[in-house]
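Lesson 9: reading folded outputs for more than one chain in a single document. The general rule is that every protein is listed as its sequence immediately followed by its structure tokens, and records are never interleaved. Here is the first one.
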Amino acid sequence: MKKIGILHGMESSFPPAFVDRINAMDVPGIRAEAVKIDRVIQGEPLQYDVIVDRISQDVPFYRAMLKNAAITGTAVINNPFWWSADDKFFNNCLAVKIGVPVPKTVILPSKERPPDTQETSFRNLAFPLDWQGMFDYIGWPAYMKPFAGGGWKHVYKIHDQADFFDKYGQTNQLVMLLQEEIVFDHYFRCYCIGSKYVRIMAYEPRNPHHLRYDVRLPVNSEKLISLIESYVIRLNEFLGYDFNTVEFAVRDGIPYAIDFCNPAPDADLHSVGKDNWDWVVEHAALYAIERARVHKPGQDNLTWGKYISRSVNKEML
């Protein structure tokens, strides 16, 4: 019997629905359940062929456990090694290389020194930085946000140079991005599962949280939607995420990828709405079953994106 597990925290709608949907499909030799852990011993496998990870970004113990599970053969969705290494600035760098439009972006050192460092730890960092060069490149207004993490935490709209230095002074030890503002005509949030199943959702980030999905796709947008779908697949193929969301802001007909490092995206019934929730439950279940079917015990069953696989083969992007 092949076993699919889901590892989750406070979520109450998606995880049980995911388990119930797989079991209702009644696929011979495949069952699903919430992951149960009573011990983790180095090099010993867990009794799961596939684990869908929804919580290890917040619980370091789970991330370590999943790496041990992966090295002993579990197909972990998403790859815990890549998830540990990835960040939003790298995402943008990769997008530039593979031809997906992104806002102009620079990365900033933390305003306060990290723990266990001192002034001499930063001998390679110019003082002052070329602030004017960065401001000229980005323009005003702009957005500043952490280079890693999510959930709209520590996101600032910046109006001018004085506003920048005021808000930058509030960021403490966070490493921040300064990013061009995209004044958009349309905005989309897109689920991507298995780098092939794509759900493009009209989304309005300026609305209250419970109304952000309460918008319609624009009329006569078939070509735009097709282009966005191709970008979603390309990004996830190179990043290697099995389960992710990508957000696009469309300005003058050009979709700019705004945020595409969301490997545990919101899948709550009450926020994404019934139609989107039904889609993500169904396709997450289908994909987990696909991974269980091809699972090979004791081997590497992780997804490694094209960036990693091409790097191993010394191929340029």
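And here is the second record, again sequence then tokens.
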Amino acid sequence: MAQLQVAVSDSVFPNLDPARAVLSKIGAQLSLAEEPKTEAILRVARDADALLATYAKITAEMIRQMTRCRIISRFGIGVDNVDIPAATERGILVTKVPDYCIDEVSDHTMALLLAAVRKIPFANSMVHAGKWEMPAVVPIHRLRGTVLGLVGFGRIPQLVAPKAQSFGMRVVSFDPYIPKDAFESARVESLEFGELLKISDYISIHSPLLPETQGLFNADAFRQMKPHAYLINTARGPIVDEAALAHALDAGQLAGAALDVMPKEPPMDSPLFGRPNVIITPHTSFYSEESLVDLQTKAAEEVVRVLMGEAPKNPVNPEALKARPQTSRA
């Protein structure tokens, strides 16, 4: 039997040692594309048995040329960079790692919230510029008794909720896909989206990027928010209409924003740059040394399961099994 081949489309990791260690258990060879572009990816992926992907776009045309691939395993939670219907048609399973950075992102969410409310980055920049001026950062409001609205109530926001509640905040959420008992056990109120916009003092986004969530926070949504409200986004940049957010800030429709994700990354230019009431971090909410090891390990373990004929733990398209053509490495 020929040696199993696993391609990697792109990597943000210092090295791929954790993934390589897992794949070595089945004697698989790991090959990283020279750059995250179509032809470079296909050079390592055309004849590979599996593909590990980070941020690179895995398009339908690329998938059609991956003649032996049985699984595309994403180094991450979202799979919006992979053409799922195309993979399903080819019988290729797509998997994700939904639980690798839930502590980190929920911590980062609270860090952004606290930094925005307490105006810490702005105050810090003033002091470093030689200005010791407390009046310049007022008003600052107490967190206790305020309302935090969570848009989405999956694994990460379910960890945000108790952290916010420990500050005395009332937590509400909009997520039509989560069962009622999940809200009840977390002491979180389930609301419609429009009601959440109207009553929340702070809104934190935790939705996946889907056609129905792209641009969910648009001009109409901002008009419904409180003028002292803050928007936090650690999910996906395109969920927020960037131009509409800039206009809403200019119009005083909300007080500020704290963002770890942008519509285009890295952003070459943005109407949100240079604003004292906007905090932007470079998509680091997922990061810790520990989470990166978890991510590589769990993504590679999905590859091993599928190549060994087992069911993956976190399939996005289990129906792909019905369309899978029979192949052999002999």
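What the second record shows: Residues 141 and 298 are 42 Å apart (CA to CA).
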